[in-house]
Amino acid sequence: MKKHIFVYLILACFVVSKVKAQDAEIRIKEQFNAYSKFVADKNFEKAMEYTNPGLFKIISKEQMIMLLKRTFNSADFEFKVGPPTLTDFHPLKTIHDSSYVKFASENILQMKFKEDTGKVAPKPEDQKQTNALRKSALANGFGAGNVNFDEATGFFAINSKKVVIAASHKAQMNWKFAIIENERLKKVLKTFIPSEIIEE
User: Could you give the 3-state DSSP secondary structure of residue 68?
Assistant: First the structure.
């Protein structure tokens, strides 16, 4: 009888753990999609509410908002962000008082370089060469297979793939996000996110 109770308790713990992980994944998807929409809509103040506050110890919230505004309102190019597709969710891990989930985000960024209207329009062959150079430069940062150019619209379509760390306290209701943009940023994130989460 005791053996049956023990097995039942183990099974119950497994089911509860699985349900909690599924609930966390649903909340993470909802909240990261909300964050992404705020960014796409240029509502950067609201987007900061979903940003891991540990980042603000490295760069202030005001500076981060300023950088985003400079990027999205650049005089050199037009910038659009598509909705993300979220995949590859790692198992939820709790360390001390915080829970973490690592996952992948993929979306399409559209970029169109603004030409100087005060200058004479370049010849078609010169413009084609310029676009090829721009595509090559973007491919160096995002990967050759992730950049395409639409001659009809003048937009570069960039398939952006990133790793995201979601963090929350024990309640696992409100999740905050930190995006691993590159290897150098990993060192910064390790100052407030456990290394084992970032490297898993």
Answer: helix
